[in-house]
Write a sequence for this structure.
């Protein structure tokens, strides 16, 4: 693969890093004692080009830029879609106006998701889509004459985003937002569901009891289906989703699936919701192939009509960049590419390589568990990870990872080749050894 032309930023890399350290916040870092960052000077295929104190590094991206760049970088089809749309219009307000990219994307999403999901809200980020879904659930209950139903049932170990509604349904104890507990809306938390093959019946009994106890105050249920992401990369039994669907139906609750991380093939199905259909579906991350921020909330006619019967008569949300034409155009091109390249075969290939490369780590010193699901590979340590040491070890193997908590994991682009997948597994093993 040819190297990119010299980026002018690379020549002043040291200056950029100094200013970055003194003035820029990065996710979940301190301003006064920031964690180290690397300067990216370009990206192509599945590789990132880094300037590490004047030394050029070409590394495999094992993270898909936080699970979004499923096709890799500098993808000709997505570049072309972006350039073509930029030549028409980059943005226009969605209030009182519409445009072909938004309409075409909504039509495509309705066609590839479960039949009951017929109505689409185009949000501008994953967290915002969850906020919208929560509002939908609350307004549905108001439209059905039950305004007292204002709480959500959710799962321990979950993560749904960083805004306030999202934080309220994240794990209240082990999650990243426990310091805000006193100012968050109090939700109802069921136990984390069992792993595949576990005691679903026992878990279900507890959740049914919890729902019955709070039925008069619950508006809905929100979960990440099949895989809990940033809350711990926990894989659980699909039968739990059937239980949640039954509980929602029994108590008149709106069932929300947050597929921001799991949607568009990551766990082996295009959508987990194709197995159990929710009332509301949130999509994001991979929707634009990692090019632009965009999310979508799909819901049923029953929910849409109930919202219209609430006192406002309308869904009370409307972001400035809702339905951004650039993002919608790239999302359409990404969905085209996903189908054309045969994502199912790619995800199976990635899964097989991760299983072969990571399974030998089970039982290694410091390793509590190894989990592989679709294009997701997780090494769960029995202690908190030393992120700096783990990252450095992976970089020495030519791979970029981003460990957190007690996890070293990978969600590579679907197009990652066999040699690079093997390299990723070696890097994860090296990181686990020193972390």
């Amino acid at each position: 693969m040819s190297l990119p032309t010299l980026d002018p930023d690379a020549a002043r890399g040291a200056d950029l890093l100094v200013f970055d350290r003194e003035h820029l916040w990065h996710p979940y870092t301190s301003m006064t004692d920031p964690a180290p960052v690397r300067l990216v000077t370009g990206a192509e295929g599945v590789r990132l080009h880094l300037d590490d104190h004047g030394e050029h590094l070409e590394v495999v991206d094992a993270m898909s830029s936080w699970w979004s760049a499923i096709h890799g970088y500098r993808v000709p089809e997505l570049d072309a879609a972006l350039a073509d749309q930029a030549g028409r219009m980059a943005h226009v307000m969605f209030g009182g106006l519409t445009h072909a990219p938004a309409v075409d994307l909504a039509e495509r999403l309705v066609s590839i998701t479960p039949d009951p999901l017929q109505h689409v809200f185009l949000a501008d980020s994953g967290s915002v889509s969850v906020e919208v879904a929560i509002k939908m659930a609350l307004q549905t209950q108001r439209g059905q004459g039950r305004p007292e139903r204002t709480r959500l049932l959710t799962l321990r170990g979950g993560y749904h985003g960083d805004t306030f509604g999202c934080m309220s349904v994240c794990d209240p104890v082990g999650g990243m937002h426990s310091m805000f507990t006193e100012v968050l809306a109090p939700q109802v938390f069921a136990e984390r569901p069992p792993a595949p093959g576990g005691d679903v019946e026992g878990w279900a009994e507890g959740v049914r009891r919890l729902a019955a106890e709070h039925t008069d105050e619950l508006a809905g249920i929100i979960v990440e289906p099949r895989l809990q992401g940033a809350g711990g990369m926990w894989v659980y039994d699909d039968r739990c989703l059937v239980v949640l669907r039954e509980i929602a139906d029994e108590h008149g609750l709106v069932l929300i699936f947050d597929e921001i991380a799991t949607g568009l093939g990551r766990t082996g199905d295009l959508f987990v919701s194709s197995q159990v259909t929710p009332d509301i579906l949130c999509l994001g991350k991979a929707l634009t192939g990692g090019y632009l921020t965009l999310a979508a909330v799909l819901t049923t006619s029953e929910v849409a009509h109930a919202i219209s019967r609430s006192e406002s008569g309308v869904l009370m949300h409307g972001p400035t960049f809702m339905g951004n034409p650039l993002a919608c155009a790239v999302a359409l091109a990404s969905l085209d590419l996903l189908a054309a390249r045969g994502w199912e075969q790619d995800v199976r290939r990635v899964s097989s390589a991760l299983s072969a490369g990571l399974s030998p780590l089970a039982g290694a010193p410091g390793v509590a568990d190894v989990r592989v699901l679709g294009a997701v590979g997780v090494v769960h340590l029995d202690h908190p990870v030393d992120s700096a040491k783990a990252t450095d070890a992976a970089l020495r193997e030519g791979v970029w990872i981003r460990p957190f908590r007690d996890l070293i994991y990978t969600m590579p682009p679907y197009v990652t080749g066999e040699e690079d997948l093997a390299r990723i597994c070696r890097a994860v093993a090296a990181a686990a050894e020193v972390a």
User: Anything to note?
Assistant: The two ends are 31 Å apart (CA to CA). The first strand starts at residue 39 and ends at 44. The domain at 77-341 is CATH 3.40.640.10 (Aspartate Aminotransferase; domain 2).
